[in-house]
């Protein structure tokens, strides 16, 4: 049998594996704010053993997305500084108020170079100690920056910062961007953008924010933007060091219009939550437990969880926002609603209530003082 058994033969063949564009190119990761990540967050399922990687340690999945976002915010600067020192933009921030200060701190914490300016010097010094550079004027801030962020009180303040004697329009703006986080009239945003472009060539993005001081401190803001798509993508890495969500809504002015829609909801919510809280107190139940009792139900919301405890306990410092600021936005809503033939009866009523609160409590009082109005002046 051994003599007749076939002799096994081994056939060796050299296989050449040639890299192709498909193999070389890393797949584009899904949007960390997209439906796939949201679904994993809601389901509570573990991370996918996915092929979508960012760096060597993290995969795109619900449970790791927050840490992943933080790492990705820092990564552009680290990579660019090694390969191309000019690849990372120099940043500026004008207006260091309730929102501007924590937002600037987040940029500094992410490792970016930030030049700051504020009308009052007292708010500048702590940020300089944290690593920021001081600008003597808004014009100097733009001269030493590629992208300038701005968050000031109203359209008049924006006008002064841009076109005042020491405004940014006096510096060369070719190839530079101004990102306005202030909440102003959409028409004012379009007008200012056109005039600045004519004055020094700088581009414009209107990008009002929502989320309050807590969101600014924690980097969980929602920012809605109007401007050119290329400009939006240029600033996105820096915006995401300060915000959880950055949405391009359309041309210049679209961000401000979206913010007005936000303020319709928030302004009315403040008034309604004040009424619900007052009803609980007057009826003899523990209003402090409303957020717990309503959590997960149709009445649950971020304003409910954040505002009601502050209303009940009388916590107004630091303020979440000033009465005058909310009233300014509600007045703008009324103006745009009239121009677009849009009925806004609830927002109009909220505006009347905040006007009463401003008279009773003062323009600089916390907007949540409307709760006291529900017990006293109304």
Write the layout of secondary structure elements.
Layout: H1 21-24, H2 35-43, E1 53-54, E2 58-59, H3 65-83, E3 91-94, H4 100-109, E4 114-117, H5 125-129, E5 133-134, H6 138-143, E6 147-150, H7 155-163, E7 177-180, H8 186-200, E8 203-206, E9 209-210, H9 212-218, E10 221-226, H10 229-239, E11 243-250, H11 254-282, H12 290-294, H13 302-313, H14 323-339, H15 345-361, H16 370-375
Parallel strand pairs: 3-4, 3-6, 4-5, 6-7, 7-8, 10-11
Antiparallel strand pairs: 1-2, 9-10
Task: Describe the overall structure.
The protein is an alpha/beta fold and 378 residues long. It is 48% helix and 11% strand. The protein has a six-stranded parallel sheet, with helices on both faces. Strand 4, helix 5 (125-129) and strand 5 (133-134) form a beta-alpha-beta unit. It is globular and about 60 Å long.
In short:
This protein is of the alpha/beta class. Helix content is 48%, strand content 11%.
Features of this protein?
single chain; about 375 residues; alpha/beta; 6-stranded parallel sheet; 3-stranded mixed sheet; 11 strands; about 50% helix; globular
Strand runs, count: 11
Q: What gap, in angstroms, lies between the N and C termini?
A: 109 Å
- What structural category arises from helix and sheet content? alpha/beta
| Unreliable segments of 5+ consecutive residues | 7-15, 17-85
